[in-house]
């Protein structure tokens, strides 16, 4: 590990803008942007760049408000702890390591040297003491993962290495280091194992239902954890444009000269706000089988977080420390999550969320009217609702449509109206609300 900066300060990179300004400048969009740009022109510059460090940073500093409560809910799921303990002993972690060691390329000082330097730098930035083993595996599909039970392993595919430039890849490596720091690798490994098992026992109805219940809960949590790791990637790369470009490339491939980040973010806004309630239901159904949120949604979430005061404070050294984690309470995270969701629902443009807000608002207004009526505020005053003849003997003889019921009401109302009239015994007191 290299020498760390004081917790309150950190180091801004010279010449290219550090994390303190929210994001570095975008790389030139000249049509040749892609994998070759990072591997050729920026190699020396990337090595010389000094980034802000976050000594002792806790994963709570960048975790999405829904991440930890979702994990707590997962652990409360009936049977999860039993399955977790059994699978921890069943999953062949040693054979998993041997598989990558024998059939992938290990990233170190001699192979994929540039990726190795990025990993070491990412671990220094987030103050991760033990650098995880890192492998590149042959697969044309762009992907990266952090798995393992005792010790996390980071794996990226050749498709991802060829797709991203240096700064974009740095954000991805920071993303995976964030998973490792948050302890996500264990649950990710179990999710992969259970997903494979669910396919094998699909012919057993009850067995498949039981496993898929846990798999669905794991996927729901993991989608939230991806938003947390995206934030960690931004803390490591310290270039918002690069993080957004990387997500855009995952959606549209290595065609950067045909794409635009601002337009991509507008897509996310249209996705979140467009359509009607039927579209909102379809969004929920389409995301259920996925382990990752959609790329455009991730980009929009990250872009919003980068504009918050919390992110700016974090960049200036104000963040929770790891040594404070034992004192942190889950209830605080749940409260923070509840506040986050309440604000998200209020400001959401999604048709279903707007419907929920309108229904809740209407129910609250209706409940307020009922409360006022029960307290008497909604009852008309005798002088307003009836003419002076209503207090005469005609009204008390049953001349009203309700007969005896109105007779009793008139006597009670008359008794109250004496106090409401100027000069009465109850002068100065209203009808109450």
From TrEMBL:
Cofactor descriptive note: Binds 1 zinc ion per subunit.
CDD domains: M48_Ste24p_like
Membrane-spanning parts: none
Keywords of the record: Cell membrane, Hydrolase, Membrane, Metal-binding, Metalloprotease, Protease, Transmembrane, Transmembrane helix, Zinc
Superkingdom of the organism of origin: Bacteria
Comp. bias regions, Basic and acidic residues: 320-337, 381-394, 409-421
UniProt cofactor(s): Zn(2+)
Region span, Disordered: 1-47, 317-337, 366-433
KW Cell membrane (keyword) present: yes
Name the UniProt record assigns to this protein: M48 family metallopeptidase
Organism taxonomic ancestry: Bacteria, Bacillati, Actinomycetota, Actinomycetes, Kitasatosporales
């Amino acid at each position: 590990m290299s020498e760390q900066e004081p917790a309150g300060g950190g180091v801004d990179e010279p010449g290219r803008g550090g994390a303190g300004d929210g994001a570095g400048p975008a790389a030139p969009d000249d049509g040749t942007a892609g994998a070759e740009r990072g591997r050729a022109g920026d190699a020396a510059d990337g090595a010389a760049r000094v980034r802000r460090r976050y000594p002792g940073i806790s994963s709570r500093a960048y975790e999405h408000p829904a991440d930890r409560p979702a994990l707590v809910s997962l652990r409360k799921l009936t049977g999860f702890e039993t399955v977790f303990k059994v699978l921890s002993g069943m999953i062949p972690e040693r054979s998993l390591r041997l598989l990558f060691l024998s059939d992938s390329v290990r990233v170190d000082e001699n192979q994929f040297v540039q990726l190795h330097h990025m990993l070491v730098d990412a671990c220094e930035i987030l103050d991760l003491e033990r650098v995880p083993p890192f492998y590149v595996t042959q697969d044309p599909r762009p992907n990266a993962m952090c798995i393992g039970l005792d010790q996390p392993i980071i794996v990226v595919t050749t498709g991802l290495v060829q797709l991203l430039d240096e700064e974009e890849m740095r954000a991805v490596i920071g993303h995976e280091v964030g998973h490792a720091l948050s302890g996500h690798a264990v649950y990710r490994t179990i999710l992969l194992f259970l997903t494979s098992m669910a396919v094998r026992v699909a012919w057993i109805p009850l067995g498949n239902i039981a496993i898929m219940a846990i798999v669905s809960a794991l996927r729901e949590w993991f989608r939230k954890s991806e938003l947390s790791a995206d934030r960690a990637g931004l803390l490591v790369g310290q270039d918002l444009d690069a993080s957004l470009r990387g997500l855009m490339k995952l959606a549209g491939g290595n065609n950067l000269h045909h794409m635009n980040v601002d337009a991509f973010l507008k897509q996310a806004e249209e996705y979140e706000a467009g359509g009607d309630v039927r579209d909102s239901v379809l969004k929920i159904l389409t995301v259920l089988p996925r382990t990752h949120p959609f790329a455009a949604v991730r980009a929009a979430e990250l872009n919003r977080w980068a504009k918050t005061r919390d992110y700016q404070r974090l960049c200036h050294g104000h963040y929770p420390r790891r040594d404070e984690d034992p004192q942190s309470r889950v209830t605080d995270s749940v409260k923070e999550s509840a506040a986050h969701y309440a604000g998200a629902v209020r400001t959401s443009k999604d048709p279903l969320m707007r419907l929920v807000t309108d229904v809740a608002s209407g129910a609250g207004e209706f409940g307020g009217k009922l409360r006022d009526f029960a307290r008497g505020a909604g009852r008309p005053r005798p002088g307003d609702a009836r003419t002076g003849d209503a207090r005469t003997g005609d009204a008390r003889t049953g001349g009203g449509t309700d007969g005896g019921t109105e007779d009793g009401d008139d006597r009670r109302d008359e008794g109250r109206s004496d106090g409401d009239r100027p000069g009465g015994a109850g002068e100065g007191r209203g009808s109450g609300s």
